[in-house]
Every structure is written in structure tokens, then in C-alpha cells.
Design goal:
Elements: H1 2-15, H2 19-37, H3 42-49, E1 63-68, H4 78-87, E2 102-108, E3 115-121, H5 129-133, E4 139-141, E5 147-149, H6 159-163, E6 170-171, E7 190-191, H7 197-200, H8 207-211, E8 217-221, H9 228-235, E9 238-239, E10 251-254
Parallel strand pairs: 1-10
Antiparallel strand pairs: 1-8, 2-3, 4-5, 6-7, 9-10
């Protein structure tokens, strides 16, 4: 329909132009058409290129978090509820297939019998296997360490889900309605925790850290030795999940 409406308007002007001008003219038209076609993807592109405090995204910053499992109560799911509400995730009554960007898991030490409850989400690895196996480039890592999925080029092959050792990615089985402008979602695509990248780009904290009533989640810049997160990591003993894989995740756990 766009060609039928635009061609009559473009033809008289284009025929009066020289070769160079004609090329420039059609490039502008093509750019405008592409802009219209990509309207649904503008949110993702703006998020991936947005600035934090008027500074471009760079590898000078690496976002990460420390989760104190000693403060994380087994029956508490404040972080999960905050994440679901902020990003428009709803349950369909099928825990095995519902989209989950963050979930609570229980781990047990086989030797001591100690039971610990902790939140599990995308670990935002320095060397993310989900990015390595993605055939389209839909899975990608920002310079600041945040791992994301571009829903507009995700083909739903789910290779990334198989590659993730944390089972942190979900497949969207249902048509998504009432989406949040900052969190584009789509049936037949894969999704996971974004570290609330839309808030990071505005200088704010992820909603899970803000919503935790026990103050068990400390978020900050791993590259800044003066950040509260870096200072805490120097003071306490923490661990990476699946450190044997040498992925260097951005999420660390205290008390495991």
C-alpha cells in the first residue's frame, strides 16, 4: 500500500533530478520507508543505544549485583513480583512454560543439609554462551555488560535457552497484550532479565533491587572501585554460579 500511495507523488520530482540528486532523493525515501517499517523496533533500538546521564554506553562501566542469600527469605518473592509488574509478565497457570525473567529457587547443601533460597535470573555473563550460539545476532551483549535479546530478529530457535547453564531464558508461547513500552515482547521469541536496562539508561536501579524489602540485592558498577558494590565485594565472601564454566557472570551470591 505504501508504494501505491507514494509512487505518484515521487515520480514527477524524481524525473527532474540529476543522477546524484536522484540517488540522494531515493535514499531519503528509502530511509523514510524503513523508518516506518521499523516503528515497532524503535523501542529496542533506542534502549540499546541510549545514554546514561548523557554519556554513551561504554565498557568503562560494567553493571552487576550482589545477592545476600542470608537475607533472602524462602517465602519472599518481592523481587519476582516487582520484575513481573514492571515488565508486564503475567502467569497463565503453567509454571513450566510461563515466561519468567526472575524466579526463586531453593538449593540444598548435600553435606550439611543447609537449605538456601535465592533469586535466579540472567547472570549477564562477560562471555555469554547465549550470544555465541545465536544464529541471527538477536542475543547480544552491550558494552556495559548487559545481555539482551532483540525481539525483532529473534527467530525462536531456542538455541540460547539450551546454551544457558542457568535456565534463565523463557520462550513466549502466547500472544502478548498490554505490553510495556520499555519492554517489547512477542509470541515465538525468547526473553530474559534485562537488568531493567530502560532504568539504567536513566540513572536508576533495577526494580528487583528497589523492590526487595529485605535489602538483599545490591546493584552497581563492577568496574568502579569506589562503588558500593565493589567495596562490598572486597569485604565479603561471594561466589559465581557455575564458576567452572569461566563465564564471569555479573551476578554474585553471598552466603552460599
Amino acid at each position: 500500500m505504501n508504494q501505491q500511495h507514494s509512487a505518484p507523488d515521487m515520480q514527477p520530482e524524481s524525473m527532474q533530478l540529476g543522477d546524484h540528486a536522484r540517488r540522494q532523493f531515493f535514499l531519503k525515501v528509502a530511509g523514510a520507508s524503513a523508518g516506518l517499517a521499523l516503528v515497532p523496533g524503535l523501542v529496542l533500538q533506542q534502549v540499546s543505544a541510549a545514554k546514561t546521564a548523557d554519556q554513551p554506553v561504554s565498557n568503562k562501566v560494567r553493571w552487576g549485583m550482589l545477592i545476600d542469600t542470608s537475607k533472602c527469605a524462602q517465602g519472599c518473592d518481592d523481587c519476582v513480583k516487582s520484575c513481573n509488574e514492571a515488565n508486564g509478565l503475567t502467569s497463565h497457570g503453567r509454571p513450566a512454560s510461563d515466561a519468567q525473567w526472575m524466579r526463586k529457587v531453593t538449593v540444598k547443601d548435600k553435606q550439611t543439609g543447609k537449605v538456601t533460597s535465592l533469586p535466579m535470573m540472567c547472570q549477564h555473563c562477560e562471555h555469554p554462551p547465549c550470544v555465541d550460539v545465536c544464529p541471527t545476532g538477536a542475543s547480544f551483549k552491550r558494552d556495559n555488560g548487559v545481555v539482551l535479546v532483540d525481539k525483532h530478529i529473534c527467530i525462536g530457535c531456542r538455541y540460547c535457552m539450551m546454551a544457558c547453564p542457568y535456565k534463565a531464558r523463557s520462550f513466549v508461547h502466547e500472544t502478548v497484550e498490554n505490553q510495556k513500552p520499555h519492554a517489547p515482547r512477542g509470541k515465538g521469541t525468547v526473553e530474559s532479565c534485562t537488568f531493567c536496562v530502560h532504568k539504567l539508561d536513566q540513572g536508576e536501579q533495577p526494580v528487583c533491587a528497589v523492590g526487595c524489602s529485605q535489602e538483599a540485592i545490591l546493584f552497581g558498577d563492577l568496574n568502579d572501585p569506589e562503588s558500593a558494590l565493589s567495596k562490598r565485594l572486597k569485604e565479603v565472601s561471594s561466589m559465581q554460579l557455575r564458576a567452572d564454566m569461566e563465564l564471569n557472570p555479573g551476578v554474585r551470591y553471598q552466603g552460599l
